[in-house]
Q: What sequence folds into this?
């Protein structure tokens, strides 16, 4: 599970989204450090669908009609939610570790 | 602009494109529009980066697909998904291999060669040894013989007729039993006369084996000894497959018999060469008791073990003297008698089994060596792709995925090699079979079939896994540290696995080499055996005349002697001899002989035959004492015999045999010994010479015996052209008698060594193959080590290391690995060469010369394989090697 996969799961945890919205949400969540381009993003989506963490879903009723082509919406599966929670816990642990060590070296 | 995205998106694999192509293009376009809104350069930058991103993503998607067209169920991936993933991996592996055709060719060919050899020999082993005998429920058929430890009988000997009667009536664990004998005898159909291999058997032989005829009927109880059943081969060869053969009466063996049945082509018993079965009737009181030597086959009842059957038969055999009487010697023998019971398949296939299993094992070893080589090559390749693996891991590939990528390449190679191997086997197998010694059972049934293909398929997958697992596991653990520091770190830690492979290859190749060395020595010892006669310049043949004047011993003897005179008058003929059973072609009969000095005793068991004219002179058999047969002995009733040296020793251990008298069991007359000749080897060069009594062409009573078709031995330098001359003489004296069984004694001697020379030759070829593969493996590893250590060697040389020192360093590294391999190989060989068993002759299974010699050879080859890389190492230019980084 790389960082972008995590961010895509994170973005979708707020509800069903279409591709472009996922990209913007990832950028926002990561403070602008992650901004997947089209090819990269859809490979991640494809991988997450293939491994059963994300599935396609019907557009919400309030979705704006987009000109040109129908936007496809994606949502987390139960497995996806579990993965996200697991990853978050791991990252949290790793972050706390980093803070402890940096804090310790700062005092000395 | 949309067209541009639509074009680039086409780079994605179809499955991915169908699902996400439009979305990718739409998003790239939206990106551009957003950037363009800020400024034109930002827009252009967006187009460029999106383009690069899509191209990279498309490429990545080809290499590592993320999109499996049918989304798998959330719990694991199903079978379909599993195969899809493998299919993709294999497609990718195919592409990767196509990029390095040299590597692919070498690995595929190495494996194909080894697998082809294995598949070919498997086909032979499967057809000859593994497939059940062509009888009903063959697992319940047993061969029965006996042993009597402590008696003067051979370690194992056949049964006699009273066993058949007693077993048939009393044995409770046996359903049916038959007794049979095989020999070569005369078949006369019209004017065609030949001696053919045939059998005489009780009519129960067919019911025991569960066989039924293809044509006609089988002998029953009322048939006694007047009928015969013929084989499919004989039916085709002599009777052109005509149905009216049934009911015909011909001269078969010793008299006229009616052919009542034809067996199917699959019925072969006891060997493939048996062409005809005469029926016989065993009735109490019609045969002498204790005439051992008959073969016995029985069908045991379901559920009874061979041990139980043997125990019951042993107990029954002990009752025989009580029921049938017989001599005191017979009673003594039966008191020690133990029945031997073994599967019929072992008896029928026994002689062929060992060479075939040895060859099969050898092929397996070659395959192992080939696998080690290919595994080595894949490890080198994996080293080269280490960075790629590290990168893949860094971007999120699972270990299992990395494993699969590696394994699919090896499997692809193995599958391609398997296909090639089947092709290779089907081309070479017929060639191989042409050199197989005659007598191999079911030879004609051997061909590459579905079983071979299935076996090769399994072999390919197993070999693929064997070759691939080690490199794959090692390279699926790429170290990110190596990615960072540029991967020029020490190779020491990574080398052990490859050294282990070279050690294994060396050890296995040495085992094969030792085995062929032992066979080679056996062969030279066997060729050096003195058979007691001179096989050079001797031509032998038989004829079987049928003339009204030829009725008894003297008339036949007279005819033969004058025929021999005609032959001797032919240009280039030095001498001509007559013998009933020519050595290396026919077996001898045996009987007990008692002497005038120890009357009352049954006497020792000796072989006997009949000889006349200048037999000993023509064969170069030395006359040790007394004289050979004279013309008088041949035609009159003097009752003279000539005995062999060992027979003399057995009959009169301490006295001069000349002038003493012997009596053959079953005869009423006593014969006087007039000469002693050297021992001869009768059947096989590997057997000891047999004690032998030679009777003259005529017995003391004119009708005691007659020789209707003895063999002639003609000593002449013209063995290749004499046949024509002889044929014209035959045409004059006996136009009705064709000449048959015409051989040179040299040819017969070669035939007797054929089984060994064949095994030796094949094993030799296989071990040379193993040796080459092993040497290539060592060379490959050392070459790689030198390449990896170029920089270190460069530094050493820059610091003043001498060329010789560097060479020694590399060679020593190679030799250390070889030495370990040789040591292990010697141990394995010492433990396993006994499996060669009876193939060895006059050589110990642990012959020190062979062991030391082959170990040294292996060392020399290792030296050569190490020296080439060492020379390359010493040519390293320090400047270049250091600049290389």
A:
């Amino acid at each position: 599970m790389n960082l972008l996969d995590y961010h895509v799961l994170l973005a979708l945890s707020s509800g069903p989204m279409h591709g472009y919205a996922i990209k913007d949400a990832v950028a926002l969540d990561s403070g602008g450090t992650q901004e997947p381009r089209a090819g990269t993003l859809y490979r991640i989506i494809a991988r997450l669908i293939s491994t059963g963490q994300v599935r396609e879903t019907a557009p919400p009723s309030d979705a704006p009609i987009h000109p040109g082509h129908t936007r496809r919406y994606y949502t987390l599966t139960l497995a996806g939610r579990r993965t996200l929670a697991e990853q978050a816990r791991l990252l949290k642990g790793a972050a706390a570790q980093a803070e402890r060590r940096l804090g310790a070296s700062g005092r000395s | 602009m949309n067209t541009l995205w639509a074009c680039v998106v086409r780079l994605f694999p179809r499955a991915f494109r169908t699902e996400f192509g439009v979305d990718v293009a739409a998003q790239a376009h939206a990106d551009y529009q957003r950037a363009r809104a800020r400024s034109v350069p930002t827009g252009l930058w967006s187009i460029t980066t999106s383009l690069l991103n899509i191209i990279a993503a498309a490429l990545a998607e080809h290499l590592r697909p993320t999109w499996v067209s049918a989304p798998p169920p959330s719990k694991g991936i199903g079978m379909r998904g599993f195969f899809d993933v493998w299919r993709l991996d294999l497609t990718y592996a195919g592409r990767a291999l196509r990029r390095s055709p040299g590597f692919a060719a070498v690995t595929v060919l190495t494996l194909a060669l080894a697998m082809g050899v294995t598949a070919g020999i498997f086909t032979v082993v499967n057809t000859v040894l593994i497939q059940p005998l062509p009888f009903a429920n063959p697992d319940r058929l047993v061969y029965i013989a006996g042993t009597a430890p402590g008696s003067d009988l051979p370690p194992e000997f056949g049964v006699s007729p009273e066993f058949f009667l007693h077993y048939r009536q009393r044995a409770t664990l046996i359903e049916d039993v038959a007794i049979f004998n095989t020999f070569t005898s005369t078949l006369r159909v019209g004017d065609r006369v030949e001696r053919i291999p045939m059998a005489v058997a009780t009519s129960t032989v067919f019911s025991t084996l569960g066989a039924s005829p293809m044509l006609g009927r089988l002998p029953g109880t009322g048939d006694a000894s007047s009928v015969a059943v013929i084989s499919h081969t004989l039916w085709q060869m002599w009777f052109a497959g005509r149905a009216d053969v049934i009911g015909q009466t011909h001269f078969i063996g010793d008299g006229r018999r009616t052919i009542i049945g034809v067996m199917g082509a699959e019925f072969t018993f006891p060997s493939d060469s048996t062409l005809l079965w005469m029926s016989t009737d065993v009735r109490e009181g019609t045969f002498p008791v204790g005439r051992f030597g008959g073969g016995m086959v029985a069908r045991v009842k379901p559920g009874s073990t061979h041990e139980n059957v043997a125990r019951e038969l042993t107990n029954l055999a002990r009752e025989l003297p009580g029921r049938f009487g017989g001599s005191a010697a017979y009673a003594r023998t039966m008191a020690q008698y133990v029945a031997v019971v073994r599967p019929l398949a072992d008896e029928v296939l026994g002689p062929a089994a060992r060479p075939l299993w040895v060859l099969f094992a050898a092929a397996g070893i070659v395959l192992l060596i080939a696998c080690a080589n290919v595994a080595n090559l894949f490890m080198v390749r994996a080293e080269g792709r280490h960075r790629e693996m590290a990168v893949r891991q860094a971007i999120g590939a699972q270990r299992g995925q990395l494993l699969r990528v590696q394994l699919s390449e090896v499997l692809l190679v193995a599958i391609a090699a398997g296909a090639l191997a089947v092709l290779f086997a089907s081309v070479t197998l017929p060639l191989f079979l042409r050199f197989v010694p005659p007598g191999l059972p079911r030879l004609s049934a051997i061909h590459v079939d579905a079983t071979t293909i299935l076996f090769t398929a399994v072999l390919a997958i197993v070999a693929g896994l064997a070759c691939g697992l080690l490199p794959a596991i090692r390279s699926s653990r790429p170290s990110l540290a190596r990615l960072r520091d540029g991967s020029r770190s020490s190779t020491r830690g990574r080398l052990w696995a490859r050294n282990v492979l070279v050690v294994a290859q060396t050890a296995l190749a040495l085992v094969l080499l030792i085995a062929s060395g032992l066979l080679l020595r056996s062969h030279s010892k066997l060729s050096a055996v003195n058979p007691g006669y001179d096989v050079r310049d001797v031509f032998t043949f038989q004829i079987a005349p049928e003339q009204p004047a030829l009725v008894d011993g003297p008339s036949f003897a007279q005819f033969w002697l004058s025929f021999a005179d005609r032959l001797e008058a032919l240009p280039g003929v030095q001498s001509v001899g007559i013998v009933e059973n020519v050595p290396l072609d026919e077996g001898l009969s045996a009987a007990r002989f008692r002497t005038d000095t120890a009357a009352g005793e049954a006497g020792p068991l000796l072989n006997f035959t009949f000889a006349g004219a200048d037999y000993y002179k023509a064969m170069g058999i030395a006359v040790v004492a007394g004289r050979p047969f004279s013309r008088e002995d041949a035609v009159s009733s003097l009752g003279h015999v000539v005995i062999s040296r060992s027979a003399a020793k057995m009959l009169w251990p301490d006295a001069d045999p000349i002038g003493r008298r012997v009596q053959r069991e079953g005869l009423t007359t006593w014969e006087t010994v007039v000469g002693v000749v050297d021992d001869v080897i009768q059947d096989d060069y590997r057997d000891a010479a047999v004690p032998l009594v030679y009777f003259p062409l005529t017995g003391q009573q004119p009708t005691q015996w007659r020789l209707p078709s003895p063999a002639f031995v003609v000593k002449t330098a013209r063995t290749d052209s004499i046949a024509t001359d002889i044929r014209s003489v035959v045409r004059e004296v006996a136009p009705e008698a064709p000449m048959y069984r015409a051989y040179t004694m040299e040819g017969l001697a070669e035939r007797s060594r054929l089984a060994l020379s064949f095994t030796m030759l094949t094993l030799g070829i296989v071990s040379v193959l193993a040796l080459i593969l092993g040497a290539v493996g060592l060379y490959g590893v050392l070459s790689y080590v030198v390449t990896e250590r170029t920089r270190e060697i460069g530094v050493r040389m820059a610091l003043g290391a001498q060329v010789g020192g560097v060479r020694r360093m590399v060679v020593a590294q190679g030799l250390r690995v070889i030495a370990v391999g040789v040591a292990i190989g010697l141990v394995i060989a010492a433990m396993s060469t006994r499996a060669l068993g009876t193939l060895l002759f006059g050589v110990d299974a642990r012959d020190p010369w062979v062991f030391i010699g082959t170990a040294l050879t292996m060392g020399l080859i290792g030296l050569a394989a190490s020296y080439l890389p060492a020379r390359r190492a010493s040519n390293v230019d320090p400047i270049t090697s250091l600049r290389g980084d």
In short: Chain B has a mean pLDDT of 84. The first helix of chain B runs from residue 2 to 9. Chain B is about 55% helix and 15% strand.
